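Q: Got a minute? One more chain.
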Amino acid sequence: MDTLAGMVQLGPDSGSSLPTLSVLMRFLIFKYYSHYYSFCTIGRDFVEDGAVSRTLLPVNDELLASCLLRAIDHGCQAFVVDEPGIGSFLDLFIPVHDVARQRSLDKSLILLVTQQNQTQMFDRLRSHDTLREISNVLIVVYSERGWPTNIYTTTISITDVLERKVNVTLEQATIDWNNWQNHTFFPDKSSNLMGYVLRTAMCNYLPFTSYERLTEVDAGNAFDSVTGKRSIWLDGTELQLLVSYCELRNCNIVVFPEDEDEWGDVYPNGTGNGLMGSVAERRTDIAFGAFYLWFKPYNFSTYTATISRS
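A: Always. Here it is, folded:
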């Protein structure tokens, strides 16, 4: 098999050693996807002769849903998606993962976008809910001749803590193509969450979870979902973990109390109420309340690692 270095060519209209799209993709897959049990590719196969576990999926909309579910349940933990399959893949990602048995949390996604369709495709990406749920995203824009023209990564920007709509910022990477193999294409995004708003459901259930509405504005450690003010004080063994996490990782907490329905219920169609229903319906990102490993919400949400014993 040819080495990557041996396949790099001098880029067009450039004095740098710009790799072809095929060379770049082989490098990205071998460097960043080799630790996964398997990955899925929708579109072209860039590692046809490579010793790496992968599943090739059709671009056909009618076949993709069932094939994607089977692939995930058989261990597909990362994805490479060429432009013809991007729309269908993003629309299927959440519902397919809801019913999948395998729940790998550390997923990565590489999207391949043609230069001529970049504007149209980026407009769709900026507001798609799936990109709220995947942090490790790399977008490779390439020309008709098969050369990468720009590389982008994603960040979630939220200007209003009460706004549920996703605003995805596509940040262009600055790459020295003379030294591109040493570039970090998937930077660590977890150490600084850039003020990400974590929508949190909870109820008063001492000593695990407790909240209090303060009269003094901006005196709390979380935002109130009713007023949008930082006027809620969270306490309890579980919520102290969350507060500490956001202090260390630069995120914000907005609280959605569920004292009336408390833990609530989740129905077969994915609707529900209370803590479990709020996560299943994606009204919130996470719920706290000394949960057991109940089966009913599992088709529409997942559980953290166990943090205490009852």
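A: Helices lie at 4-7, 21-32, 61-73, 83-99, 118-125, 130-133, 237-249, 274-280.
Q: Perfect, thanks.
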